[in-house]
Amino acid sequence: MPCLLDKLEERVSSEELEEISMVMRSIWLRRNEVVFKDTFKSPSQVMTQAKEELRTYYQAKQKLRQNTEPRVTEGESLWSKPRESFVKANWDGAVDKERKKVGLGVVIRDEEGEIMAAV
Which InterPro entries match (predicted)? Predict the structure, then answer.
């Protein structure tokens, strides 16, 4: 049974899918700010944030293409696959206190271990 992501991948380019994902993320973050911090962001602020984050994402992607040396060696994988007809999202984050930067990555895989999406 196709999920929303499958349907989107059939209809839009990968760049458009990245943009849609970033807008959806910004909407979710806005929702959290309203619920947990009682702060308001206008729709135009949400879109500005999404565009800025997308630009940062593309810059990071470009830097990765330029850097051909692996920074991490592969070790034994502890990943376990989800139940049939489920997907699994694994994420990790890093904080650089000195530069006041935070990074987050997410990988979504199906029950066969195939990557469906990554940010």
Answer: RNase_H-like_EbsB-rel
User: Within 10 Å of residue 30's Cβ, how many Cβ atoms?
Assistant: 19
Q: Are residues 44 and 63 in the same domain?
A: yes
Q: CA angle at residue 52 from 54 to 88, to 5 degrees? A: 40
- Residue 40 tokens, joined: 């308001």
The SS3 assignment for 118 reads: strand
Find the mean pLDDT for residues 104-116.
Answer: 88
Q: Please give the residue range of the domain that contains residue 100.
A: 80-119
Closest by CA to 19, choosing from 45, 75, 57, is 57
pLDDT in tens, 21-73: 899 999 999 999 999 999 999 999 999 999 999 999 888 888 877 765 555 55
How far CA 34 is from CA of 1, 25, 37, 43, in Å, comes to 34, 14, 6, 13
* CA atoms of 88 and 112, how far apart (whole Å): 11
Q: pLDDT at position 42, please?
A: 94
